[in-house]
Structure formats: structure tokens, C-alpha cells
Amino acid sequence: MSTAAAERLYERVRACDLCPLWKTRTNAVPGEGPIDAEVMFIGEAPGVNEDRQGRPFVGAAGQFLDELFAAAGLSRQGVYICNVLKCRPPANRDPMPGEIDACRDYLDEQIDIVDPLVIVTLGRFSMAKFFPNQTISRIHGQAREAAGRFYVPMYHPAAALHQGSLRQVILNDFAKLPALLERARKAEVRPAPPLPMALSEPPDSQPSPRSDSRPTDSPIADAPIEAAPPSHAEATEQPEPFAPETAAAGRPTQIRLFD
Ligand code: SF4
After folding, report:
1. How many structural domains are present in the chain?
2. Is the C-beta atom of 181 inside 6 A of ligand 1?
3. CA angle at 214 for the pair 208 and 220, rounded to the nearest 5°
4. Ligand 1 pocket: which of 10, 11, 87, 96 to mutate (most atoms <8 Å of CB)?
5. Is the CB of 21 inside a 6 Å radius of any atom of ligand 1?
6. Residue 241 included in any domain
7. Number of alpha carbons in the 13 Å side-chain half-sphere of residue 129
8. Residue 188 CA to ligand 1 centre (angstroms)
9. pLDDT tens profile 24-58
10. Which residues, including other chains, have CB under 8 Å from residue 4's CB and lie 6 or more apart?
11. With bands split at pLDDT 50, 70 and 90, how would you rate the model's confidence at 2?
12. Which of 60, 33, 31 shows the shortest CA–CA distance to 45?
């Protein structure tokens, strides 16, 4: 995939009227970052500052995210950042299922274009794409591997702004990223075992996120990194599960990584 493909996608997002959020947005926020980034961060939806500037994570949560990048030896310029929704929900309310559904193809396309080694979900709604029916308080910071890519659910940085005790929890989760990225790089150069990979759900309901772009590594499949202790925050929250989905180009982008 090319930068031109990403630019074409961004133009489609900026002109999108597939869900009612186009009526209230100031700017759509497609996402940003190098299309060859090794790590992709997926948040939930633009907030007021993002809506004004057309860029992801530029408010207070974005400032904390920059701190988290630094703590993990990453930089904003070196990673790809986007959201489940590309337009701001009014009053920063939660994304609605119909909006997520309408916007899904854009995110799937971004994943295909960037083809990252590691996907970090930030918050409940991006977590639900890969970890349906899970609670973030239970699985945050625990990586799962599928088809040569690692998926790590993490709290949204804004959670630490509302609940100070989560700040260190999120920092601890981010601190695991350098070692995880190193494992992902090593996995990338290993020979690929035959597909399909052995995952925890039947193939028809749990497709691999990709079929041919990167060698897979079954020995590290389903091996969580150090489990983080559960937090009380969001313990009762349950994201709306996504239905199994397939990208427009026939490349599956949703998997179940936890039972
Ligand atoms: S949120 Fe997504 S689907 Fe809805 S108008 Fe914006 S770009 Fe289109």
C-alpha cells in the first residue's frame, strides 16, 4: 500500500456522510502517522480539540499519550494513530453501534495500509473490535498474537485524567511495549507456518486478521505478556460486541483473541 492510498482514504473520510456525525463535525479526523509504522494506536473517537484541528489525540489525553510514547521509547512521529470513529460524537458521548458499523471499513482499510506489527487499542470501543465481550479492567496490558501481529488492549489515556490511580497502570502497560515490539520484529522474519492458524474460535467466526502479508509464528501465539492486575475502573462496563466482519478487499480484520 502507498501514501497515495492513505491520502485517498483520508479524502473519502473528510467527505463522508455515512452516519449522522458528519452533520455536527467541524473536521473529520482520519488519523495520522507513517504508513510503514510498526505500531498502530486505535482510540475511540475525536474530542472537541481533535474536531477543531482534524488531528487525533491533540487535547489533554493526547498530551498524556505523548508522555506514554516517551516512556515506551516511542514518538508520535513514528507511530500511526487513529480512532474507531472519524467524527466527533456530540458532547463526547460514547460511539453508537450504528456509527461504529458505518465507520468500520475506514479503520479496516487503515489496518491494511499500515499493516503494523503491533496494534494497541485505547479504550473499550477499540478493544471490542478485537476482544469482544471482554472488560478492559480484566485484560488491559495483556498482548495476544495472531498471524504475526500482536494486539494489546489498554486503557484510554483519558481514563487517567478522570481517575488518577489509572495513570501508573497505563504507564506500566506502555512499559511493556518495547519488549513486545522486539518480539514482533523477531517473529516477522521467521518462516510462516501453514495457514489457517490455530485460534480459539472456529475459522468461520474468527478469521485471521490477514492472510499473506507477514509470516506468522505459532510458537508465540496466544502467549500473553505479563498479566496486569485488574482495576476497579470500568469493571462493570461491557462494550457492545462487534459482529464478525471481513474487510472489503476480502482480508479479515476482526478476530477473537480472548474467550
Ligand atoms: S463517523 Fe465515520 S461513518 Fe460517520 S460520518 Fe464520520 S467518517 Fe463517516
Report:
1. 1
2. no
3. 70
4. 87
5. yes
6. no
7. 33
8. 33
9. 999 999 999 999 999 999 999 999 999 999 999 99
10. none
11. confident
12. 31
> Going by CA atoms, what residue is nearest to atom 4 of ligand 1?
19
Cell numbers for 145: 498474537
Longest dimension (CA), the chain: 49
The CA distance from 13 to 147, in Å, is 28
- Residue appearing with cell numbers 500500500: 1
Q: Is residue 255 part of a domain?
A: no
Set of cell numbers at residue 229: 492486575
Q: What is the DSSP secondary structure assignment for residue 78, as one 8-state letter?
A: G
Find the domain containing 161 and state its range. 3-220
Cα atoms in the 13 Å half-sphere on the side-chain side of 206: 18
Q: Ligand 1, residues 86, 88, 108: which to mutate, most atoms within 8 A of Cβ?
A: 86
